[in-house]
Amino acid sequence: MKIEILTLFPDIFTNLLSESMVGIAIKKNALEVNITNIRDFATDKHHTTDDYPYGGGAGMVMKPEPLYHSIKSVNSENTPIVYFTPQGKLLTQDIVNKYSKLDKFIIVCGHYKEIDQRIRDTLVTEELSIGDYVLSGGEIPAMVMIDAVARLQPGVLGDIDSALTDSHQNGLLGCPHYTRPPEFMGMRVPDVLLSGNHKKIEEWRTEKALEITKKNRPDLLERFKLGNR
Ligand SMILES: C[S@@+](CC[C@H](N)C(=O)[O-])C[C@H]1O[C@@H](n2cnc3c(N)ncnc32)[C@H](O)[C@@H]1O
User: Fold this and answer.
1) Using CA atoms, how far apart are residues 89 and 95, in angstroms rounded to an integer?
2) Residue 134: predicted pLDDT
3) What is the atom index within ligand 1 of the atom nearest the CA of 137?
4) Is residue 132 predicted with pLDDT exceeding 70?
5) For the chain, which residues make up each domain, given as ranges?
6) Long-range contacts made by residues 92-95, C-beta under 8 angstroms, separation at least 24?
């Protein structure tokens, strides 16, 4: 799969692309990430990419021309174009799963006050948010998406079951995990996990997942019960 990133701050991505699961995905050719600097598509001699907002007010707006030409430089027909914005639909595991199966998609990273609305109206195919707070730019949301889809690419994780049993894949949060030693500072690993009884272990994990979801995300539990994810 190929992800095209359009940004004014390409260096932000450097470490992400060589470390951990994203680095492994790229080394294994399961993922290609191409970074394009929107500033390269500015047409004036000062390489201007933002300007004052019409109507006045604080903050600068990213100009449409460099955005338009940078998108066109990496776009092919029907390629999904994501714009991360606090105004977008909340990014969920279901949406990540959908994007992880594509051959290619584009992420446009906004910055400053906003990007020119005409780009959103005409080129962007989906607006997504990573949560109800405001960051300085779309680069961190783009990194979130890259990491989330990279770990789902075939052959990237040692055992894909690890990703498929994580929080959110079945609509619930994950369960607690323990490793050696069986006792640490007086705290024992629950007996059931040492029992070797796989049926009982599965039942315990489901019970804990339901308990944690009820405590921390009752909204998810309600949706899970309704079969409405
Ligand atoms: C300072 S924010 C702009 C916020 C915008 N004026 C608003 O009120 O919605 C700059 C850029 O960061 C990105 N961004 C900030 N918070 C985000 C979030 N929670 N999810 C996704 N993108 C976000 C977007 O690309 C946004 O255009």
Assistant:
1) 10
2) 98
3) 12
4) yes
5) 2-150, 167-226
6) 92/168, 93/148, 93/167, 93/168, 93/169, 94/229, 95/128
Tell which one of 106, 111, 134 to mutate to probe ligand 1, the residue whose CB is within 8 A of the most ligand atoms: 134
SS3 (DSSP) at 34: strand
State the average pLDDT over residues 87-95: 97
Which phi and psi (to 5°) does residue 89 adopt?
-70, 140
Q: Is the pTM of this model over 0.90?
A: yes
Q: What digits encode the pLDDT tens for the residues 152-177?
A: 999 999 888 888 899 999 999 999 99
| CATH number corresponding to 167-226 | 1.10.1270.20
pLDDT of 229 = 61
Give tens-digit pLDDT for 29-84.
Answer: 999 999 999 999 998 999 999 999 999 999 999 999 999 999 999 998 899 999 99
Residue 113: both structure tokens together: 């006050």
Task: Return the H-helix or E-strand segment holding 70.
Answer: helix 64-74
Name every residue whose Cβ is closer than 8 Å to that of residue 176 and which is 6 or more positions away in sequence. 208, 212
CA nearest ligand 1 atom 18, residue: 86
* Residue 109 Cα to ligand 1 middle (Å): 9
Q: Which CATH superfamily is domain 2-150 in?
A: SPOUT methyltransferase, trefoil knot domain (3.40.1280.10)
Ligand 1 touching residue 84 (CB < 6 A): yes
Q: Cβ(91) to ligand 1 under 6 A?
A: no
Q: Is any atom of ligand 1 closer than 6 Å to the C-beta of 87? A: yes
What was the pLDDT predicted at 170? 93
